[in-house]
From TrEMBL:
Listed EC numbers: 2.6.1.-
Source domain of life: Bacteria
Protein known as: DegT/DnrJ/EryC1/StrS family aminotransferase
Stored PANTHER family: PROTEIN RV3402C, TRANSAMINASE
Family, as annotated: Belongs to the DegT/DnrJ/EryC1 family.
Key words, A-Z: Aminotransferase, Pyridoxal phosphate, Transferase
Amino acid sequence: MSDNILVTRSSMPSLDEYIEEIRPIWESHWLTNMGVKHKQLQAELEEYLGVPHVALYTNGHLALENAIAALNLPEGGEVITTPFTFASTTHAIVRNGLVPVFCDVNDRDYTMDVTKIEDLITDRTVAIVPVHVYGNICDVEEIDRIAKKYGLKVIYDAAHAFAVKYKGASTACFGDASMFSFHATKVFNTIEGGAVCFKDDSWVQLLNDQKNFGIHGPESVCFVGGNAKMNEFQAAMGICNLRHLDEEIAKRKKVVERYRERLSGVEGIKLSAIQENVESNYAYFPVVFDGYKYTRNEIYEMLQEQGITARKYFYPLTNSFECYRNYPTAGTEKTPVAQHLALRVLTLPLYADLSLDDVDRTCDVILGQKD
Ligand code: T4K
């Protein structure tokens, strides 16, 4: 049993395996700009996810920002999204000159409450950016129906949902595009990294140019692009980690099962619903303390005292951020379910190598069974 328990811990290959993978990079001196490892990882991910196209990025945030930019939406257009997420989702919308309109979430799996979307649509609405929060899958069928009815674009923030399947299909298949984060804290990591998955063939060149300064050929710069390329060392880490991913997810599953065994049915403790037709990646284990003998903040402190780190993902809501104070669409009162959750949720330690003893130690503190 370890002393301190972190909220998560990066999955890594053995050092020998990584060295073997980076040796050709070292020997060739080709470090970035869509080199051999970049192309290899891209092809492996297209096959793993069963999608026609994957574009790789240096991080998930730039992947999302670029995917939204590729839609070429009119400045000031409204984008329906959720505030129960990491800062990145809302920032990616705003940094594209668009206005976030916050939809509440449901209290079963914490994804966008699809019954509230249509009420938020105006003649300025241009897109929906839902979040598969904690790896829980949004109601993709209803979102698709609404998007078609009103002619809206859909980009999924699937940062947490890599390797999740719905009805046998990868989460990468839904909407106009899906973004994954491959950050060190994610189920699958490339140190920092991200991807956009899409079906439209015309986006292949567009996304390539966009993440490489808008350079279209040796003497042609066709638009104002940026720099968001994944480098060769990141790609090599991804190639190694992908080999072990299924095994890592199986280990995470055991951790989650133990948490559920210990915490299910306890009065005042609510666990995220197990979704039908979904193969989970066991990315996060959120617990909502609602009417429990201790408050969320008390539990957080009690765990800290025992050297156990939990996280208040996602508190505060993005619609309460200082930088959005002047937006008429901001304000937590417009998303009461999300606010209720944000004040009560803790995500517990979860990673592939977390021992079941450490899960028990965490649960003992929560249940007040620590002497
Ligand atoms: N959309 C959503 C819904 C997201 O959640 C995120 C990112 C994004 C978009 C954007 O994707 P990226 O641009 O990040 O690819 C973390 C991550 O930095 C962030 O990726 C993630 N979501 C967010 C939910 O959490 P922090 O600040 O909470 O992480 P930090 O540094 O406190 O680390 C937490 C624990 O992880 C540490 O206690 C130990 C472990 N750790 C951390 C690092 C950095 C490792 O084991 N290895 C490491 O290298 O933000």
